[in-house]
Specification:
216 residues; alpha+beta; 8-stranded antiparallel sheet; globular
């Protein structure tokens, strides 16, 4: 089984008008899409993971013409937002592809700092080639990676934010997790243009998140 990772870049900054409005509001940060599905009646459900001002989030959802229903759940680190909405042509075309070509979309799908959406799709390589021309013409795509799919590592790594992924990769490369430890937080920070304290804080959050996932 193979996987392909690419970044979806919507021309207007979002897959829907609601997605676009969440993306351009400076009080809100889109972290990921935890779930997205097309329903039999032609509508769609999406679960966003968002950071930021809860009032701003609710204001956008309450005033969006395409949102049929929504619910916001607060956690310690972010907001999980369930949205039932009218599906536009782009969403409809995009979400019918996995079923048509027998592909599996791995979640969560993580937003990049430039507003793109990083997606990993699992399937056979020849199927990828057949499916790509069917992608909506309103979207641009940037291919990032293609390889053998390993469910546990790919899923766990995708739980991290883009910055956390960058810091973890740099720490591992420099030998932070080797025994004995080869570098300090400050050593890692010098390659990332940040402080040692920032690296330490990120690594603690990374460790807590990943350990929480694998601990029964």
């Amino acid at each position: 089984m193979r996987y392909i990772t690419f970044v979806i870049i919507p021309a207007d900054g979002g897959l829907t008008k609601t997605d676009q409005e969440l993306g351009i509001d400076s009080r809100i940060t889109r972290r990921s899409i935890q779930h997205i599905n097309l329903l039999a009646d032609g509508t769609a459900v999406v679960i966003f993971e968002l950071d930021g001002d809860l009032d701003a989030i609710e204001d956008i959802l309450a005033n969006s013409a395409e949102v049929l229903e929504y619910n916001v759940t607060e956690t310690r680190e972010s907001h999980h937002v369930y949205i039932h909405l009218e599906a536009n042509e782009t969403i409809t075309e995009l979400l019918t592809i996995p079923n048509e070509y027998e592909l599996v979309v791995d979640t969560p799908m993580v937003f990049t700092h430039r507003g793109g959406l990083r997606v990993t799709v699992i399937g056979e390589e020849d199927v990828f080639r057949k499916a790509m021309p069917a992608m909506p013409s309103t979207l641009h795509f940037k291919l990032e990676q293609l390889g053998e799919y390993e469910p546990s590592t790919e899923r766990l790594f995708s739980l991290l934010t883009e910055r956390q992924q960058e810091i973890l990769q740099e720490a591992i490369q420099q030998g932070y997790y080797e025994v004995p430890r080869k570098v300090t937080h400050q050593d890692v920070a010098e390659s990332l243009n940040c402080s040692g304290g920032t690296v330490g804080e990120h690594l603690r959050k990374i460790e807590a998140k990943l350990l929480g996932e694998i601990t029964p």
